[in-house]
Fold this protein.
Amino acid sequence: MRVKTLLAVLFLSTGAIDAGAQAIKMQFINNCADVSLNGVDIYVNGILAVDNLNFRTATIFTDYFTVPVNKLEIGIAPATSATVNDTFFSRSITFTTPTPCIAVINGVRSASGYSPYKKMSIDILNNAVLNASVSGNTDYVFMNGSTDAPTLDVRSGLNMVGNDLAYGNFTAGYTSTPTSDFKIRLTNTTGSKTINTYNADFATKNLTNEACIIVSSGFMDPSSNSNGAAFGLWLATPNGGQMTQLQTTTPEALSRAQFINNCADTTADTVDVYLDNTRILDNFAFRTASAFMDMTAKTAHDIDIAPKNSSSVNDKFYHLSISLDSGKKYIFLADGIQSSKGYTPALPYVLHYTKNAMEDAASTGNTDVCFAQGSTDASLIDLKESGNTLVSGASYGSFAAYQPLGATYHRLSLTQGSKTTDYDADLGNLGLQNLAVAIVASGFVTQTANSNGPYFGLWVALPSGGALKKLPISESVFKLANNKDFKIWPNPVQNSLHISTLDNQTILSADVLDITGRTVLQNQKLSNNALNTSSLAPGNYVLKFVYQGQIAALRFSK
């Protein structure tokens, strides 16, 4: 036995202990992938505690006595160290309670040859457990210990095991599961990309009633890290020893889906959505999207739509039974009319869907867009960008293939019959870089035939969900004040400004700008085509509103 090993044994068994010192049960794991270190020596309170702990090796849980009462000084030295003076990294750890701990040695010692460089650290898991909390189960905790791995999610089936797990962090407590062989996967933080899927073969490894830690270890890009060990998941039990690797395996039978409420009928513009009799979206509003969510594939699902504030799935007014393809991504777009009257054409309520959805742009720096035609009274639609055709002859309920666009400003020209309207799509300022999004045709072309419902426009659904983003009609199509199709009176005005149109079109809302271009009244509701101007100070203004799919701008004064 080497002299320093003998000293370690003496320290653990008969070493002098200060009166009142408390025992901390601790396991050490060497997850330092620096190729210059074959192993490390670990000193506790100046005494050699662990001799030559190899990479991806764990100690058994051992009692270490704090000096003073609530502190341990941990030092890391090369495996060839002679004394504590050879320590090249140390950490002082203060304990408030004597619960078991796991200390994982992460990072690298070398100052060059590693990208990104993450200096050595000792990351502590407090409240570690040595046995499963339930008889017949296996308890497990994750730790992200790979220096070049991104922030990760750890998922299994539809369950989130670890959310936003950054380097050096542990999952929030242990997960307890009946001992079996199952699959886990590492994804990005949105779940849109799976990094890899692994066999958590707890039954095969005889881990019944055991607790274990799973550590991400090694480098995703060894070529940028001194050709060090490749990335993987490695498991340690309280018994210590060489860690065991979880093997990669085939992906789980899953798909992903997003729901978009595009029903402009006021009787169904806010709904509850049920999946297999469980409510998954509560009071889901018009022009709102859910985030993409995981769903099991190759099995039948019941999707039901019920009125808002429904009591149960039994209140449903729409039902769809569908089996999803594994590995596919779906968008379900709620369209159509639920009311028995007041809408022309009264196309029935429906969930249109595509199974070719995307969440991320195919190329870095781009925004990939697909077009969904969800307007019940719109004619066939063409959509162009700078003269390039994105969509040709899109009919109601259709989804077009994704097209890559630079994440910059684009002018989209939408044509219905002989009428063309331009929209501003400033994809960069909308925060859509590197994303795939759906542009949805939404609302009514002819409001007067559709209960004066929301006007037609283009709206963007993000993969993260939330309220859809409106694409504004391009300012370049402003009409002049002398346009023969409409007029305003009185001008100058006092308290009420009236608008009359050649075709008696109802104007639902308008903006007012001052002479500097600043909006002083925004999205003001009109009553009988009259705008309340009583709050305006004397001066010159521009009235701005949508007329026949274009922006009208008329000057007036008060």
Observations:
- The radius of gyration is 32 Å.
